Amino acid sequence: MSEQMESRIEKLEDDLAAMKADLAVMRSNYVTKEDLHKEIDGVHREIEGVRNDVRKEIGDVRKEINNQTWKLVTFVCGFGTALVAATYFIASQVKP
Predict the structure, then answer these.
(1) Which domain holds residue 41?
(2) Coiled coil: which residue ranges (predicted)?
């Protein structure tokens, strides 16, 4: 009976050693809640940085569109004035 008990204890010790090895592998391969929260915080900070960069770029694009709009308005008004002046000149110089 003692021999059977010895073999069972030996098997339990071997299984315990295997479980310890498996647990060590699991601990090295998986993250803890703390590690996960640190990573999530880092991702949130990075997303916020990208969001701020996009806001700045959108503001710059709006500013450039506004500048281009006023350049176009100035050109069209100037060109329209030139056409009116040319039409007036032609109309005043041609005698029927």
Answers:
(1) 32-95
(2) 2-53
pTM flag (> 0.70)? no
pLDDT tens by residue, 76-87: 999 999 999 999
Extract the tokens encoding 24: 């060590």
Residue type for position 27: R
Residues 16 and 39 occupy one common structural domain: no
Tokens of 44: 């949130």
Number of domains in the chain: 2
Measure the CA–CA gap between 13 and 6, rounded to whole angstroms.
10
In which band, very low, low, confident or very high, does the pLDDT at 27 lie, cut at 50, 70 and 90?
A: confident
